[in-house]
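My current task is to audit a protein record that another person submitted. Alongside the sequence sits a line of tokens, each denoting a local backbone shape. Where you disagree with what is written, explain briefly why. This is what I was given:
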Amino acid sequence: MELTYFTHSTCLLKIREYSLLIDPFFTENPFFQEKEKTLLREDFFSIKKLEYILITHAHYDHVCDVEFIARRFNSLIISNYEISSYYDKIGLQTYGINYGSFISFPFGYIKYVWASHSSVFKDGTYGGNPGGFLLHTEKGNIYISGDTSLTYEMKLIPTFGKIKISILPIGGIYTMDIEEAIIASSFLKCDKILGVHYNTFKPIQINKKLAIKRFSEKKKKLFLLEKGEKILF
């Protein structure tokens, strides 16, 4: 599997021949310059196909480019019922889910899981229950927490199967911070963590060297990727 990190919580997962984009945030993202936003509109970073878009919740820093990208690639949006209904009403392909069972897709199985946060669109429309995704694939299992505080629910995640890598927010204020994410990784029984949702805005600035050091002290590997950097796992 290959993961490309674009900043904030936006990642591209490649599982076999399938591409899944998580929480697209580009055109209103302060990390992207105008020339990069032009490239996004014209070429979308040379991505040729994008079958799925996963949305954890409705805040603008997770959904601002959903419509543009979904129309460009004819992608299937997978999210909770309310978010899926929102996009269904404007003619996009959606698959609405909620907290429940695993659901089969060509790339593997997906389960919508608990996140402790909020969820509302920029226009005030209710975005349903925020969540995360647990992906079970033949290449390994991935946990995408979405924006969340530390919760005891995370202890349930590894009961479904060993996690290869977890994607966790570490910026604090609106989500877990570094120390809470370390506890979360212990709950998850997962030693490889991709840190997200940090440094995009002033309130969520972190010391990257200290964060990596604190995870390392707990015998855990924290990946803090640069914009556009990829990892294989």
